[in-house]
Amino acid sequence: MDDLKKLQLIFQTLSDYNRLGIIRFICERESSVGEIVKATKLSQPLVSHHLRVLKENGILETKRNGPFIFYYIRDKRILDAINLFQELFKNSDIKDRTSSKFCSGWIISNHNNKTKEDRQ
Amino acid sequence: MDDLKKLQLIFQTLSDYNRLGIIRFICERESSVGEIVKATKLSQPLVSHHLRVLKENGILETKRNGPFIFYYIRDKRILDAINLFQELFKNSDIKDRTSSKFCSGWIISNHNNKTKEDRQ
DNA sequence: CATCCATATAAAAGGTTGTTTATATAAATA
DNA sequence: TATTTATATAAACAACCTTTTATATGGATG
Description:
DNA-binding, globular, 46% helix, Arc Repressor Mutant, subunit A, 5 helices, alpha+beta, 3-stranded antiparallel sheet, homodimer
C-alpha cells in the first residue's frame, strides 16, 4: 500500500473524539467492552463499532477471557506518538498550557504489552 | 478547548490523502500555490481549500511575496511526529519494509522555519 | 438444552467533508 | 485604469462516516 494512504488511514482512525477517548481509557490497562461502555457512557454497539475500527487499523488487539473480550494497545509507542502531537499543539490556545499528557500511565508502562492478571 | 477535541482536530486535518501529499511536497521547501498545483496535479481551488484547512489547523503558515503566497510548515517537529507514525506502522503490511521517511528532507532541516531567498 | 450475559453485526438516518464548477479578490503591468 | 496573473471564496453535489435501532452470535450456567 502507498505510504501516504497508510498514513491517511492511521490519522483517519485517530480523528474521532470517541475513539481517542477509548484509547485514553484503555491505555492505563486493558479493558473489556463493558468496562469501556461504562467509562465512556457510549452505547454498547457504538463502542463495539469503534473498537472494531481501532483493531482493524492496528491500534488495538484483543484477548478473549470467557465471555469477555479485552482490548489493549498493540504497541505502546503509539501513545508516545499521540503524546508528541499533543505537546506540539499544546500552545495553539493562549490559555491552558498545562503539561498534561494524553495518557498519564504511558511513561511507566513496560512497552511490551504484557497483560495483567485476569480481571472479571 | 478539550485536549481530546484538539487532538481530534489535528488528526482530522492529517487524515486526507491530498493534504498529506501537499505537506510532503512543502516540507522540502516552502512553495507557492501554483507550485503545489503543478506538483500534485490537483485543481487550483482544491489546493487552495486544503491549504486553508492546513493553515487554520496550525500545520502551515503563509508569507506573501508580490502576487504569490508561499506556504511552509509552521513547526518542523510536526514532520517528526508524522514520521514517527509512519515508522510505527511500517510493518503492518508483510512486504515493503523500506525505511523511507515521510519527508526525506526533514532531518537536515534547521527546525526554525527560516525561509530561503525569494523564488518567483 | 434453554436461558442469560457479553459482544458483534446490519441497516438506516443524519451530518460532515471532499470535490467540482463558477466567480471574486488582489497584485502587477501595460 | 484595463487587463492579466495568482489565489481565494461560494455554492452544489456526492461520498463517506458516525450514530442509532434492532437483531444476531457465542460463551456460561442452571
